[in-house]
Amino acid sequence: MFTSYLAKARTKFYIGFTSNLEERMIRHNQKSKGFTGNTNDWKVVYTKNYQTKELAHKRELQIKSWKSRIKIEELISKKISSAGSEHSD
User: How far apart, in whole angstroms, are the C-alpha atoms of residue 13 and residue 1?
Assistant: First the structure.
């Protein structure tokens, strides 16, 4: 199982995919070089599970291609409002 996800810290979003979300978030919140190392308050705000790495990666690239903070925030809002229903984005 692979998960595509969005994490938020302050005013930044990180878009990625992983086979171990808990471990990945620990790494994001450790001080290190790179985009996620500048802060240590990342939290997951969106997830979607996929059966294959390829599908999860495809979704990551799709979200990254939007380059729109508004569209990303709409995706998160939609996911939150549909929590509890059987469908998601």
Answer: 23
